[in-house]
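User: Can you predict the 3D structure for this chain?
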Amino acid sequence: MESTWFSVADFMYLSLFIGIATVLKRKFNILNKFLLPTSMIAGFLGLIFGPAVLNIVPFNVAVLEKIVYHLMAIGFIALALKDRNHKKNANSLNTGLIIVSTYIIQGIVAFSLSLFLAYTFFPNLFPVFGLILPLGYGQGPGQAYSIGTQWENLGFLDGGQIGLTIATMGFLWACLGGVILLNFLTRKKEMKHVKYKNDIIQKNIVEESEPGEIPLSTGLDKITVQLILIGIVYLVTYLTIKVLSSALSPLGTFGMTMSQLLWGFHFLIGTMYAMLLRIIYDYLKKKKIVVQNYPNNYLLQRISGASFDFMIAASITALSIYAIKRNLIPILLISFIGGLITILYIIYICKKIYKVHVLEYIIALYGMLTGTISTGLALLREVDPDFNTQVAENLVLGSAYGLVLGFPLMLILNIPVIGYTNNNPIMYLYTILALFIYLLVIIILMKKNNKNS
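Assistant: Here is the predicted structure, written as structure tokens:
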């Protein structure tokens, strides 16, 4: 009977460490000063007490990696099912364009650096190593681990672990570097927070009982309905990838490569299906074919938040010290240069694009593009504690734009991997050219949108 507990042991241990981290944040103000997320503190506690260091808590690293893989997709599906504010403004689109342009610049710099290292000092380095940076910094540990793991099957030794490590380095840049950046910028007179008459208070999401909500008499709890919707989307995602993988299997090495990449992009496919389901649901609601509000924004946000909290804690706990040591110099070089380039670019582009609240946009975007949207909002609170500006709203709306505008990046990521598996290095050059063309298109869109605003 005891063996049945082993399947949920890692969840129980993670829950314990997240609880301990919550208490530590309340007791020690320094943890709040550096804006360290509770889930990140829990992850480092798990790493220290887990098999990698003290070996006191018997975490199963393979299970932790599966938790990261699946919770990331669940979190994104939950967000995509939410009813969104469709109000458009120039700054929300600009924010989305800045997010995507930062991904591309991170990719160009880090990929070029990894190619240089692979062809000089580290001949055994996976040449595509650097493209983990925009995934780990720009999109978080889930994506970095997912893609890195699929690349392991194509020759990237410790790909998943390196993805998690890069993402963790990104969190450190976001939290520790963010506080330093915040203090530096707020000392400059021209970067002080300024209130404008058009500033409006953004309200937090709260659960409200509305006439169209599911009645209690149905016998299904509201959160059960949200989990049903998420589960259905994830099932369709799984079946889609399975069918496509079967169709690709006769194509030999190319088919195997594409199949592995599909499993790595499960979160993106799931997000697209969730968005499609939301569009269909909104259409049926508009036509009054469906009368009740089945997706609940408040609960979907809570499910997404919980998924990301456990995902971040699990991703840091699962880090392999051995894998980090084996790739220490490339990891440190790419992480440091990537973080530095991100700071410089965000400061430069925000000063160029935004007419008001430049400081707030710099801080929020920097936190998001080295950590997650949560770290971006945490940093923003330091200069805009009540979210009186529209920066928080534009960060969320910009993320939605970024998801659509950033889709080509996911396709470009396939080019060098196919080149590696087919021993065709010219594909690396095609990748860099594709990234530059992509960046040029984004810059043109940014200038056009800025001119029209």
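Confidence is low (pLDDT under 50) at residues 202-209. Residues 90-118 form the longest helix (29 residues).
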